[in-house]
Amino acid sequence: MRPITLGVCAAFFFAFTFIFNRMMDLSGGSWIWSASLRYFFMVPMLLIIVLFKKSLVPLFDEMKKRPLSWVLWSTIGFGLFYAPICFAAAYGPGWLIAGTWQITIISGSLLVPLFYETIQTVNGPARIRGRIPYKGLAMSLVILFGVALMQYEQASELSIRYAILCVVPIIIASFAYPLGNRKMMEICAGRLDAWQRVLGMTIASLPFWLILSCYSFITVGMPAKEQIWQSAGVALFAGVFATVLFFAATDLVKGNMRKLGAVESTQSLEVLFAATGEILLLSTIWPSFMSWMGMGLVIVGMVLHSYVSTRTENTVLQAVNKEKFTG
Q1: How far is CA 322 from the centre of its chain?
Q2: Transmembrane residues, as ranges (predicted)?
């Protein structure tokens, strides 16, 4: 239950990403600066925490072992995740970004065969290649149906061009984030805590952000003061609080792709938090009855996903133990 609780808390803080990004876009800020500034601010914030924990040296020692892997998967997990999210904010409201982002629930499930998971058997730990959790995937479809229902009225008002420019980048981000996160969990193999891993991935992704920020400086100039402060808010709430909470949740279930999928499904609550935040901060229209029904389906789907994932895990464990016993 603890990983699910941490995932829900992470979803709350992640919602600030969609709200602040929309605020910055409405005020005329560049999406490139919105993306880059977040990670520039995250470095000193996380550095202070890791230094206080006296765990900076072990992090650098770990990064020295496989520097190219750190740069590659951090760029995918952070760069190809957040840059498309900010790009999409220039073409759609926060509720649509948050709603479409829930495709990551399915994306994460489809990535399972790329990894091995560790299960406990009567003969000790065993590593098996992950299988697509079809039952959990069905529960993910319930969540996505709720999201679609919740956003139906608003989404119908967007042009096809804006919808494509908004949706396609988010689909890319939905695969990049869980892929980068899971690959880095494999590389770290439990040797680093969530704070160290987030700081390491932030540092390793800096070349990507420096290239983007240089391009933005040449094309649009320096960011406005308002955008700088808003980016600092995103860095603190979403970049530090949310990311560390989410990584801590995934660390608790590492090696178990079914439970990992359940944790990732908690991010569906970002839609609820983002919708509430836009109502309070941006004075958007109060959701209709249909939208509230969709929110209810999101919550029900999340609970069902967690329940099915746990039952499926037990079934697989029993099957493996039976095979080893009879063999």
Answers
A1: 36
A2: 31-50, 70-90, 96-116, 136-152, 158-177, 198-222, 228-248, 269-286
Are the C-beta atoms of 140 and 265 separated by less than 8 Å? yes
Tell me the residue ranges of DSSP E strands in the chain: 116-121, 124-129
Amino acid (one-letter) located at 154:
Q
The whole-number pLDDT of residue 51 equals 94
Find out whether 16 and 238 touch, Cβ atoms under 8 Å.
Answer: yes
Q: What does the pLDDT read at residue 321? A: 45
Q: How far is CA 10 from the centre of its chain?
A: 9
pTM: 0.79
**Could you identify the residue written with the tokens 């009567």?**
122
Q: Please, what is the average pLDDT of the chain?
A: 81
* More confident site: 219 or 160: 219
Residue with tokens 């990049």: 176
User: In three state form, how does the secondary structure of 115-175 look?
Assistant: CEEEEEECCEEEEEECCCCHHHHHHHHHHHHHHHHHHHHHHCCCCHHHHHHHHHHHHHHHH
How close are the terminal C-alpha atoms of the chain, in Å? 34
b/e 315-324 (16+ beta carbons within 10 angstroms → b):
ebeeebbeee
Whole-number Å distance between alpha carbons of 196 and 204: 12
Tokens coding 79: 């760069």
- 282-290 LR contacts (CB < 8 Å, sep 24+): 282/19, 282/22, 282/23, 282/26, 282/94, 284/93, 284/95, 287/150, 288/153, 290/149, 290/150, 290/152, 290/153
Using the predicted structure, report yes or no on whether residue 138 has a pLDDT greater than 60: yes
Residues 6 or more apart from 269 whose CB is under 8 A from it?
A: 8, 11, 12, 298, 299, 302
What gap in Å lies between CA 145 and CA 302, rounded to an integer? 12
| Helices and strands per DSSP (H, E), number in the chain | 16, 2
Q: Which residues contact 317 (CB under 8 A, 6 or more apart)?
A: 119, 120, 121
